[in-house]
From TrEMBL:
GO molecular function, one term: racemase and epimerase activity, acting on carbohydrates and derivatives
Protein name stated in the entry: L-rhamnose mutarotase
InterPro entries reported for this sequence: Dimeric_a/b-barrel, Rham/fucose_mutarotase
Originating species: Lyophyllum shimeji (Hon-shimeji)
Pfam family, one: rhaM
Length: 118
């Protein structure tokens, strides 16, 4: 079964329009890096009252940490993060940006799942 991941981060209020605009046309190289890393069904939702960004995706590979390192090493993704990280505020103490040793986005614990009937 795929690994499901849910993460949150705070969006700076001043960056809301720019963040939505850049995500309306995600760079092809960034999408390709996600695909190479076995990430599917990726979405980011915005909750304006708390300025939360909520990301969910499924990981279908066999080496999550290794594939995440490959994404972090991708030059196009690094350039993307240079743009988007400045629009966000991490909840993780000591976090300095995406792709670093300390996670930028906070990963949430799954407490319930209903798969439904196939």
């Amino acid at each position: 079964m795929p690994k499901r991941v849910c993460q949150i981060i705070k969006l700076k209020p001043s960056a809301e329009a720019e963040y939505k605009a850049i995500h309306a046309a995600v760079w092809p190289g960034v999408l390709a890096a996600l695909e190479r890393a076995h990430i599917i069904d990726y979405s980011i939702h915005h909750y304006p009252p708390l300025q939360l960004l909520i990301a969910t995706f499924k990981y279908t590979g066999q080496d999550y940490q290794g594939d995440m390192r490959k994404v972090a090493e991708d030059p196009e993704t690094q350039r993307w993060w240079q743009v988007t990280d400045g629009m966000q505020e991490s909840f993780v103490e000591g976090a300095e940006g995406s792709g670093k040793d300390i996670p930028w986005w906070t990963e949430l614990e799954e407490v319930f799942r209903c798969e439904g009937k196939a």
